[in-house]
Amino acid sequence: MSETIYGIYEEDLKKEESIVLGTIEEIRKDMEERTGMDPVEHCLSRIKSDSSMREKLVRKGLEVNTENALHAVHDAIGIRVVCPFVNDVYAIARALEEKYELVEEKDYIRNVKPNGYRSLHVILRTENGYYAEVQLRTISMDTWAALEHHLKYKKNTGSETALIVSELKRCADELESTDLTMQTIKDMITGEL
What we know:
The chain is an alpha+beta fold. It has helices at 10-35, 50-59, 66-71, 86-99, 139-152, 158-190, and strands at residues 42-47, 77-83, 101-107, 120-125, 131-138.
């Protein structure tokens, strides 16, 4: 089998992924000890596949090589943290920024994409010079994103597509309202309101 785009650094990427996941677990345990509530519903991670990384480099007009895969594109390590509440999303992001260099933040919760997509994306630079993209979202945001992603690859006629897009946007707006209400109820229960 031929070497992947990451070359001899593939094992290093896997180690860095494990280190960042360990940091998230430490943050999670610390927050749970302080608040009595687990701030993470679940956490998933991956190293971007060889083919996906090659496609992304081509799409960005970059030379397809290991250097660009590791340093010009910042999502070779991808982690998704799904939280029960919106405040947890921001609390975990701020805690990660205390441990790693924040390279970039895209806040699609406060600045919702036109289609209704909501999530907080942070690009972190690890101590060893690798990059990890951490996507943080609530359970409802994650459910919506999974459905939208799935439907994106289905074949629909023009009228069906327009209806689906419209319904997804409506659903996203309702979920945003629900997230805010759930946060308020939680804050009332915990005395934070």
